[in-house]
Write a structure and sequence with these properties.
Order of helices and strands: HHHHHHHH
Distance between the termini: 79 Å
InterPro entries: NLR-like, TPR-like_helical_dom_sf
Radius of gyration: 23 Å
CATH topology of the largest domain: Serine Threonine Protein Phosphatase 5, Tetratricopeptide repeat
CATH superfamily of the largest domain: Tetratricopeptide repeat domain
Strand content: under 5%
Protein name: Kinesin light chain
Pfam families: TPR_12 (PF13424)
Structural class: mainly alpha
Oligomer: single chain
Organism: Chlamydomonas euryale
Length: 193
Amino acid sequence: SATAQPYCCSDPRSGAWGISMLPGVDPMHGQQPRSEAVVRKAELGRQAVLDDEQAGTLRSINNLGNCLSKQGMHAEAEAVLRKALEGMRAVRGAQRHPDVLELMDTFGICLSNQGKHAEAEVIYREAVEGRRAAVGGQHPDTLMSISDLGTCLGKQGKHAEAEAFCREAVEGGRAALGHLHPCTLASISNLGD
């Protein structure tokens, strides 16, 4: 039989794809069970690389949206952030994935800055629920999401519920992070609003 040439991959991102082309794993060589296992592993590796690349791109899109929002270009920012969030949900799948939760917070802030408080509230509630489940109620990211939700509720005139969330963020921040931590101080400021 002819000697198979080794597969050479110039792009390291396509290396997972190249595994399926290695000699000895080609179904034509009588190694179907082994071939299937190797090809499945290659596909999983390839998908992980693509997902990480897509997630990185979506984080960059999120950063652009955040920048636009901070410049007062809220309508354009909303479109960009919505696209980033929808894409991240598709890539990461899990509502509780840190990448999804981060983008939810940014999107909620953008909506709230436009006075779209009811829509922002839905996003913030999802973020709070997801963060509590993913990292716990005392994590700084969770506490900021709780504080943001409280502020959003206050802007809608839901003062009792707003106060409860803001107090939870302040008390959690003091207990977990200390009185002078930036998250605690931001929550205290939000409680005062």
